Amino acid sequence: MFNKILIANRGEIACRVIKTARRMGIRTVAVYSEADANARHVRLADEAVLLGPAAARESYLVADKILDAAKRTGAQAVHPGYGFLSENADFSEACAANGITFIGPPASAIRAMGSKSEAKKLMGKAAVPLTPGYHGDDQDPALLHREADQIGYPVLIKAAAGGGGKGMRLVEKSEDFLDLLASCKREATSSFGDEHVLIEKYITKPRHIEIQIFADTQGNCVYLFERDCSVQRRHQKVLEEAPAPAMTLERRRQMGEAAVAAAKAVGYVGAGTVEFIATSTFDKDGSFYFMEMNTRLQVEHPVTEMITGQDLVEWQLRVAAGQPLPLAQEQLQIRGHALEARIYAEDANKGFLPSTGKLIRLAPPAESINVRVDTGVEEGDEITPFYDPMIAKLIVWDEHRDAALARMRKALADYQVAGVTTNIDFLSRLVACPAFAGADLDTGLIERQKDFLFPPVLAVPRDALLVATVGELLCEQHEAKQKAKTSGDPWSPWHARDGWRMNLSAARMVGFRDGDSLIEAQVRYQRDQWAITINGETTLARGKKLEGDQFAVEIDDRRLIASVVAVDDKRHVFLHGATYILLRDDPLHLVEAGGAQGGGLTAPMPGKVVALLAQPGQKVDKGTPLLILEAMKMEHTITAPGAGTVKAFCYAAGEQVSDGAALVEFETN
Ligand code: ADP
Ligand code: ADP
Ligand code: MG
Questions:
Q1: Active site residues
Q2: Cys staple from 21: which of 26, 286, 524, 585, with CB 3.0 to 4.6 Å?
Q3: 641: domain range?
């Protein structure tokens, strides 16, 4: 076995590999970019080597720098994780040429499966069932069109080199074919540098069923059963589970054997996944077809670990060190049911737009034998615009699917994040959705259930408003006490925030904004409680500040425990497993903020500054363009909020900015 390995990746997968390596007594070397200098994977590893600037093509994708780091630290092997260099055959060869073991399949197997067309040719020879379609070399548009007509619509045009759900076009009718072909080729060229496409019959209402396989250098190859990854958006996985609901023993064996045949046909070694598209039933009328093979460990491998009780990273290390597979096919068994949800920093209500920023609050559910959280970040860390905005993978296990689902619901409800927008509420609705709960799965589920999954935004409930108000009052009291401690006269009534006033009945207003509506909580201080009037209704409340941002709040005769996390003007209220976001509407505060920033001069989303359009010191009129920001492939012009002076630009052209970052220092006249 190796003494020391290097992990050529970042985020949760780097942390995941380090965990197993440590348990096996193997030392670990992390690599990192300038943006990741304090990242969790760097903190966890025994050693770490800086690769270069934040952009992946200058750091995590530079094979030479990684090999150099491996040689300098004496690492005997490199684990590529997923993404980055994991499916790069040249990198795997370069490792070998430098006497370093690549923890993955041989370069020849990566190449064989790298092109979806070439892979289908090989699989056809190995008698693996293929999606009906065309995967030939002749790419003449007229020929492709004829082939599509022959297959019958709808068809899917796919980039042969595609991945990550990109480079695919669904064609419903013959007239649309040539236009969609051209747009698919454009995307294939820009994203993968290869315009080759294949055409497949579009299977309607299909399920995505994939088989985890493992092979060693002695010629053994087993399958570790299936994962159902049918819940997708834009052809990308959102929730995964194992085993696949309603899978039959017979179909499992057929698919497992087909996957093993696929692996053997390319001389596979290590962990791999054979992806199939299947009809939604597994009875004798159902069928399944090979889609592609991913020649690496997959994001969703933990669900397989949970149902088999195996550590797949340990298997990878053993196989790479030349050992035989730890278990034979007959020794592998499925126990219980596991689900994985990908927790992303993204806004599901804005087309899943990525969100970036500091994780002011990050409190995952407690881990146990039923709940596992694989993550690359901790509270205080940042989600940057440079890499995939995944925060964590939440994995749950139980004896049966229903019990696992209940665990997932609870774990999502307990997950607290503030500082970035997340998909947690979306995931909660997804697991609550009757179609998902009833295992009525196919890849169109999210689209079909969109009314349920994207409900109109409801007003923040009264309890949450009361909690937010009490939170505000308690924080003021707390601050006043802290100040009093440091001021000359701790007993001065001017420091008191218990409502003591010169006149008797003190009342004040605490304001919030919930979307477009203004909420005014009128607060009257009474002896040991507050009378809070919102929307004409009065509630008696008391509260106590607990640890951190937790509060115990008594509302009439009910007791609640809640957290309120303040991020600038935002108040995140975590109550009863839901998160509500309010904006503090404080007239004094707004004046300060407005004066300092001039308003509207912050980045509306993460992006890159492409041009500065004014000079520092320049006097401009309202509406003068000041700067152009490119974000999510669109240009946004930032203009002067009023007549005034440009004091300074906070970023130079070419620099990346995160969501909400101040872009310009501006002084209004
Ligand atoms: P990628 O390399 O991007 O993962 P895949 O070929 O694995 O591409 O396809 C991604 C997803 O697209 C699948 O999980 C499935 O949901 C959908 N898909 C692919 N091929 C078909 C098909 N022939 N019919 C219907 N859906 C398909
Ligand atoms: P899988 O195919 O493993 O089920 P996906 O295809 O959804 O999962 O995601 C894997 C791909 O997503 C990688 O190939 C990579 O392009 C991208 N990706 C996701 N997270 C990361 C990460 N932390 N680092 C690098 N790439 C990532
Ligand atoms: Mg795929």
A1: 296
A2: 26
A3: 596-668
